[in-house]
Amino acid sequence: MKRALLAATAITFSSFATVTTPAFANPPHNYIDTTGLSPDDVCELILRPHNNSGFETQATNMQAGQNIGSPTTERATNWYKQVPTGTPSYSNFSNHRSFYRNGGSPNVWALADAGVTRYPSSDLHYAQEYVQLVGTTFDCEVWKDPGGPGKGPDAIFPPGLQTTGHATVTGSVRSPAPDYIDPNGGPMNMGGTMGVQTLICISPNTGGGKPGQWRGMHDFATSGCAAASVAAGGTVPSGNNPD
C-alpha cells in the first residue's frame, strides 16, 4: 500500500527524538521511536508532503532484535546496603585479658571485647541495573514514480530525503550494574563483639613526676589495676608505677 507524505513540518513522536525541521529540507536521522509504531509508520510520519504530491515512503533494510543505543543505568530498588567508612571507635568493653605494657610506660593495656563499634561515616550502596533497549533498525526510503503506482525504472528518489539509522523499540534487556554509592550515610554503629587492644589502666604523675594513683579506663575497674600491672610484668624505667 502506498504511503503518502504530507508537506507539513515534521513533528515529535518520542522523548528520544525531536523533529522540528520542515519536510523536504533536512529530514531527521537516527530517529528512535518508543510508542509502538511500525517501521513503515515511522517512515511515513517523519515527513508528510501533501497527499496529492505522489511521493511515498517505506522502511528498508530492516533488522530485528538489535541493540538500540547505549545501555543506561537504573536503580533496581530503593533498598540499600549501609557500609561503614572511616576509622572506628569502640565502647562497652568487657572480658579484659592478656595484660601488657607498651615499652617502659607504667600504663597497662589489654585485649578486650568491645560491644559497640562506631564508625564516623558510611556509604549507602543501591543496586543498579543496565537497561539495554532492543528493537528493529531500519532506513527510510522516499520516492515518486511519475508513471504511476509502484517503483518503475523511472522512479525519483529525492536526494536529502533518504534517511538511515532509525529504530523502533520493542523491549529491553536488564543486567546487573555496579552499585550506586551515596557517601552521605552518616555515622554507623555496629553491633556484635569486636576484640580490640585497649588501654585499661593509667598512672598519672602527681606534680613532680612521682608515682600517681591508678585509674581504670575503658570499663576496667580501678581496683583491678594493681593486679593487672603485676600480670603485665616488665620494668618501668620512669619509676612512675604506683605501689
Q: Which stretches of 5+ consecutive residues score pLDDT under 50?
A: 1-25
Q: Tell me about the largest β-sheet.
A: 5 strands, antiparallel
Choose one word for the global shape. Answer: rod-shaped
Count of strand segments: 11
What number is the mean pLDDT? 82
Oligomeric organization of the protein chains: single chain
User: Which structural class should the secondary elements be placed in?
Assistant: mainly beta
β-sheet strand percentage: over 45%
| Number of DSSP helical runs | 2
- Element string (H = helix, E = strand): EEHEEEEEEEEEH
* Percent helix range: under 10%
Count of distinct structural domains: 2
Q: Rg to the nearest angstrom?
A: 39 Å
- The CA-CA distance between the termini, in Å, is 108 Å
Write structural notes for this entry.
The chain has 243 residues and is mainly beta. It has 2 domains: 7-68 and 135-170, no CATH class; 81-124 and 188-232, no CATH class. The protein is built from 2 helices and 11 strands. It has helices at 39-46, 225-232, and strands spanning 7-8, 32-33, 48-49, 55-85, 89-100, 108-119, 121-144, 163-182, 188-190, 194-202, 215-216. Strands 5, 6, 9, 10 and 11 form a 5-stranded antiparallel β-sheet that branches. It has a 4-stranded mixed β-sheet with strand order 2-8-7-4. A hairpin with a 7-residue loop joins strand 5 (89-100) and strand 6 (108-119). The model is unreliable at 1-25 (pLDDT under 50).
